[in-house]
Design brief:
The chain is an alpha+beta fold and 366 residues long. The chain has one domain: FAD/NAD(P)-binding domain, CATH 3.50.50.60. It is 33% helix and 28% strand. It contains ten helices and 23 strands. Helix 2 packs parallel to helix 5, helix 2 runs parallel beside helix 8 and helix 8 runs antiparallel to helix 9. It is globular. The two termini are 32 Å apart. Bound molecules: flavin-adenine dinucleotide (FAD). The site of flavin-adenine dinucleotide has 37 residues, from helix 2, strand 2, strand 3, strand 15 and helix 7.
Length: 366
C-alpha cells in the first residue's frame, strides 16, 4: 500500500514529472540493500512511507571498504544504529599515515575538547547486517531476488521493475545496486569517466605491523597507491591500485552518471558515482546519498519542491562531491609525479565532506 502522504501526491503540479502509476504497491522501490539502499529505506520508514527492498545476496558477504571517517558518527546516530555499532567494538583510528617519495607523515583527523576524532575500521558484512536489521525493526522487509529482469515505465517515468516473475510498482525507484548501476544501465544513461584507466586488487592479510601503531597507511606511488589498514584483530586489509591498462587486477575507473536523478528515479551511492577508494568516503557518501534522496522525495511529497527541482538538486549535490574529489585526486597524482613533496592532506578529501555532514544536518534540521 502506498502511504497517505504519497497518495495525496497527484499529477498535474506545475513542473511536475510525477505521474499516476497503475496502483503502485509501495511509495519506494529500492534496488540493493547495501549502505545506500538501507539508509534510504530507514529514512523512508522513519517518515511513514512504504518501502520494498530487492536484493540479490541472501546474506551480506565480506567486502572491502572498512575505513570510515569520524564524520559518519552523526549519520549512524540519525539512522538509529549507533548503539549496535558501539556494541561491535570496531577498531577506531586517529588518522592516516601518508607515505610518498620515501617520507612518511601522520595526518590526524583532528580533535576537540572531548579528545581526538576517531574513524572506524568496520567489518562491512557486519555493518550491512546492522543496517538490514534496522530496516526490519522499522517494519521493512528485504525480498531476495535472483536477478532483476526489466524496468517498468509509465510514460517517461520509471515506475517499477520486473523480477522473479513478479512486477514491483512504486512511486519512486532508487537504484542502490552499487558499481553495477543496474538501472542506469537499463535506462541507457551515459557514464562520464573522470580518471585514466585504473585497476585494483584487494584482500586481507595476517601482517602484524607494529610501526603503524594500528593506524592505516596510504603509500603513494607514481603508478598508483597501496593502502594498508590494521583492523585491530591481527589482520590487515590491503588495497592496491595501479594506473594504466593491463591484465592486472580488476578495472575500477572513476565515473559519474550526471543524470543520476530523473523522472521517477534516483541513483544512490556507487550507482551514481564511483570514486577512487583512496578517498575512503564511499560508505559515508552511500549513506548520505540515500538519506539526501529521501529528504528530497519528502520535500516533493510536501509540495515544497517539484520533482524536477528535487532531481536537479540531487544531481548538483552528487556532481559537486564527485568534482571536488576528482580535483583533489588530480593534485595528489601531480604531486606524486613531481620531485617536491608538499603533501596535500589526504584527509582533506574526507574532512571537507565531514564538514559537509555537519552542514547537511544543520541545514536539514534548522
Ligand atoms: C577495494 C575497495 C576498497 C574500498 N575501501 C573503502 C573504504 O576504506 N572506505 C569507504 O568508505 N569506502 C571504501 N570503498 C568504497 C565502498 O565500498 C563503496 O563506496 C560502498 O560500498 C558503496 O555502497 P553502495 O550501497 O552504493 O553499494 P554496495 O555496497 O556495492 O551495495 C550494493 C548492494 O546491491 C546489491 N545488488 C547488486 N546488484 C543488484 C541487483 N541487480 N539487484 C538487487 N540487488 C543488487 C548488492 O548485493 C549489494 O548488497 C572501497 C571500495 C573498494 C572496491
Amino acid at each position: 500500500m502506498i502511504s497517505p502522504q504519497l497518495a495525496a501526491l497527484t499529477s498535474g503540479l506545475p513542473g511536475s514529472r510525477v505521474v499516476n502509476v497503475r496502483n503502485p504497491q509501495v511509495d519506494l522501490l529500492i534496488l540493493g540493500a547495501g549502505p545506500s539502499g538501507c539508509a534510504a529505506a530507514i529514512c523512508a520508514l522513519q517518515s511513514g512511507m512504504t518501502v520494498a527492498l530487492l536484493e540479490t545476496q541472501a546474506a551480506p558477504r565480506p567486502s572491502p571498504g572498512e575505513t570510515l571517517h569520524p564524520g559518519v558518527e552523526p549519520i549512524f546516530r540519525q539512522l538509529g544504529v549507533w548503539d549496535s555499532i558501539v556494541q561491535c567494538h570496531f577498531h577506531r583510528h586517529r588518522g592516516i599515515w601518508r607515505e610518498s617519495g620515501g617520507l612518511r607523515v601522520f595526518e590526524p583527523y583532528g580533535s576537540d575538547q572531548h579528545g581526538p576524532w576517531l574513524g572506524f575500521q568496520v567489518d562491512r558484512a557486519q555493518l550491512n547486517r546492522i543496517l538490514r536489521a534496522r530496516v526490519a525493526d522499522l517494519g521493512g522487509s528485504i525480498t531476495h531476488v535472483a536477478h532483476l529482469v526489466g524496468v517498468l515505465k509509465n510514460q517517461d517515468a520509471v515506475s517499477g521493475v520486473r523480477a522473479g516473475g513478479q512486477t514491483f510498482d512504486a512511486r519512486f525507484v532508487l537504484d542502490a545496486t552499487g558499481r553495477h548501476s543496474w538501472l542506469a544501465d537499463k535506462l541507457g544513461l551515459i557514464a562520464e569517466k573522470q580518471s585514466p584507466t585504473q585497476r585494483l586488487r584487494f584482500g586481507w592479510s595476517k601482517d602484524d605491523l607494529p610501526e603503524l601503531d594500528a593506524q592505516p597507511l596510504f603509500r603513494q606511488r607514481k603508478d598508483g597507491w597501496h593502502w594498508l589498514c590494521p583492523l585491530g584483530d591481527g589482520r590487515c586489509a590491503w588495497v592496491e591500485l595501479r594506473h594504466g591498462p593491463s591484465s592486472w587486477g580488476s578495472e575500477y575507473t572513476c565515473r559519474i552518471y550526471r543524470d543520476c536523478a530523473g523522472p521517477g528515479y534516483f541513483l544512490l551511492g556507487d550507482a551514481a558515482c564511483l570514486m577512487d577508494p583512496s578517498a575512503a568516503n564511499g560508505v559515508l557518501r552511500a549513506l548520505m546519498s540515500g538519506m539526501y534522496a529521501m529528504h528530497l522525495i519528502s520535500v516533493v511529497v510536501q509540495r515544497v519542491a517539484t520533482p524536477l527541482q528535487a532531481a536537479s538538486g540531487y544531481k548538483q549535490w552528487i556532481g559537486d562531491w564527485f568534482d571536488h574529489a576528482s580535483r583533489t585526486l588530480r593534485h595528489l597524482w601531480a604531486e606524486a609525479n613531481s620531485t617536491e613533496h608538499t603533501f596535500i592532506p589526504l584527509t582533506s578529501i574526507m574532512q571537507e565532506r565531514g564538514a559537509y555532514v555537519k552542514n547537511h544536518h544543520q541545514w536539514r534540521y534548522s
